C-alpha cells in the first residue's frame, strides 16, 4: 500500500512537472527565445500554442481549458452570454476580437445570433486560430465573417460594431499594446455599444495570490500588471465615455468587465 502511494505520488509529480514544462516551452520559453531575434513583427508576442495548428488541436479541449481557468470558464462565458441574451441585437453587429480556446466563441455566436445579430465578425492576428474557430461554428456559417486583424491596430472602421468581446487577450499583450487594444476596442464600438472583457484579476486570498503571482512570473509575464498598473477598468475610466461594471469570480482571481460606451 505504501509503495503504491509512493509510486502514485512520484507519477503525479512527474506528470505535473512535464505538463508545466510543456506549457512553459510553448509560452514564456518561446517568447524568451524569440526576443533574441532581431526580427520582430506584430505577432511576435503570440505564443506558438496559438499559431501552430497541431499545437492548437492538441490543447484545445474544453476540460483542459476549463482547468487552466480553475473551472471558472463556464461562469465567465455565461456572463457574456446572459448579457447578449438580455439585449435585442436585431440587425446589430457583434465583433469577437481575438479567438480563444474552448467553447467561448460558439456560445457567444449562438447567443448573438439568437438575439438577432445580423453579423458576427471573428478576428484574430493568427490565421490558424480563425480556421480552428471556423471548425467549431458550422451551424452559424451564414452569419459569420472571419477576418485576419491585429487587435492593436484594427482595420475595422470607427463605430462599426455594437458589441465587442475580448476574452483573455489583454494579459497576453505587452503593456503598451494593452492600451492600444483598448483604444481600438473603443474606436470600433458604436455609442451605446457594449464591450465585454474577460481577464485575470488580483485574488483577494493570500495563498491564491501567491500561486497566481508565481504562475504569471513563470508562464505569462504580461499578465501580472492587470492587477494594478494596467487595470483595464482604470484605463477605460481614464479615457472617459464609459460606464463600467466589474464582476469578479473565484476569490477575485478572474474578472468580467461589462463596459458601455456613452
Ligand atoms: C485571446 S487569447 C486567449 C487565451 C486564453 N488563455 C484561452 O482561453 O484560450 C489568445 C488569442 O489571441 C490572439 N491574439 C494575440 N495577440 C493578438 C493581437 N494583437 N490581435 C489579434 N489577436 C491576437 C492569439 O492569436 C490567440 O488566438
In short:
This protein is an alpha/beta fold. It is built from eleven helices and seven strands.
How would you describe the overall organization of this protein?
The chain has 2 domains: 1-40; 41-261, Vaccinia Virus protein VP39 (Rossmann fold, 3-Layer(aba) Sandwich), CATH 3.40.50.150. Helix 6 runs parallel beside helix 7. The chain has a 7-stranded mixed beta sheet, sandwiched between helices. The chain has helices at 2-26, 28-35, 48-51, 53-59, 62-68, 73-86, 104-114, 127-135, 175-188, 206-218, 232-239; strands at residues 93-97, 119-124, 144-148, 161-167, 189-200, 242-249, 254-261. The model has no long low-confidence stretch (mean pLDDT 95). The chain has 262 residues and is α/β, with parallel strands linked by helices. Strand 4, helix 9 and strand 5 form a beta-alpha-beta unit. The protein is globular. S-adenosylmethionine binds next to loops.
CATH class division of the largest domain = Alpha Beta
Helix % is 40-55%
Write down the domain tally.
2
**Approximate shape:** globular
The secondary-structure element order is: HHHHHHEHEHEEHEHHEE
Name the bound molecules: S-adenosylmethionine
Helix tally?
11
Total DSSP E strands: 7
Q: How much is the average pLDDT?
A: 95
CATH H-tier superfamily of the largest domain: Vaccinia Virus protein VP39
Show unreliable segments: none
The quaternary organization reads as: single chain
Question: Structural class of the helix and strand makeup?
Answer: alpha/beta
SSE map:
Layout: H1 2-26, H2 28-35, H3 48-51, H4 53-59, H5 62-68, H6 73-86, E1 93-97, H7 104-114, E2 119-124, H8 127-135, E3 144-148, E4 161-167, H9 175-188, E5 189-200, H10 206-218, H11 232-239, E6 242-249, E7 254-261
Parallel strand pairs: 1-2, 1-4, 2-3, 4-5
Antiparallel strand pairs: 5-7, 6-7
Helix pairs in contact: 1-2, 6-7
The structure holds S-adenosylmethionine (SAM).
The site of S-adenosylmethionine (SAM) has 19 residues, from loops.
Amino acid at each position: 500500500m505504501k509503495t503504491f502511494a509512493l509510486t502514485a505520488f512520484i507519477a503525479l509529480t512527474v506528470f505535473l512537472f512535464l505538463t508545466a514544462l510543456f506549457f512553459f516551452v510553448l509560452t514564456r520559453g518561446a517568447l524568451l527565445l524569440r526576443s533574441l531575434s532581431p526580427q520582430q513583427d506584430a505577432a511576435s508576442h503570440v505564443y506558438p500554442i496559438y499559431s501552430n495548428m497541431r499545437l492548437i488541436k492538441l490543447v484545445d479541449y474544453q476540460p483542459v481549458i476549463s482547468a487552466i481557468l480553475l473551472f471558472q470558464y463556464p461562469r465567465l462565458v455565461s456572463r457574456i452570454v446572459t448579457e447578449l441574451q438580455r439585449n435585442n441585437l436585431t440587425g446589430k453587429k457583434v465583433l469577437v476580437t481575438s479567438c480563444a480556446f474552448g467553447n467561448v466563441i460558439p456560445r457567444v455566436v449562438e447567443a448573438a445570433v439568437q438575439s438577432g445579430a445580423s453579423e458576427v465578425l471573428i478576428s484574430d492576428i493568427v490565421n490558424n486560430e480563425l480556421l480552428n474557430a471556423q471548425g467549431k461554428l458550422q451551424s452559424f456559417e451564414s452569419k459569420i465573417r472571419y477576418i485576419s486583424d491585429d487587435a492593436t491596430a484594427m482595420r475595422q472602421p470607427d463605430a462599426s460594431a455594437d458589441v465587442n468581446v475580448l476574452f483573455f487577450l489583454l494579459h497576453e499583450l505587452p503593456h503598451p499594446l494593452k492600451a492600444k487594444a483598448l483604444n481600438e476596442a473603443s474606436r470600433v464600438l458604436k455609442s451605446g455599444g457594449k464591450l465585454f472583457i474577460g481577464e485575470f484579476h488580483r485574488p483577494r486570498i493570500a495563498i491564491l495570490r501567491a500561486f497566481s503571482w508565481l504562475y504569471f512570473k513563470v508562464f505569462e509575464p504580461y499578465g501580472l500588471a492587470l492587477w494594478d498598473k494596467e487595470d483595464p477598468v482604470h484605463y477605460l475610466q481614464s479615457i472617459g465615455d464609459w460606464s463600467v461594471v466589474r464582476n469578479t469570480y473565484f476569490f477575485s482571481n478572474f474578472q468580467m468587465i461589462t463596459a458601455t460606451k456613452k
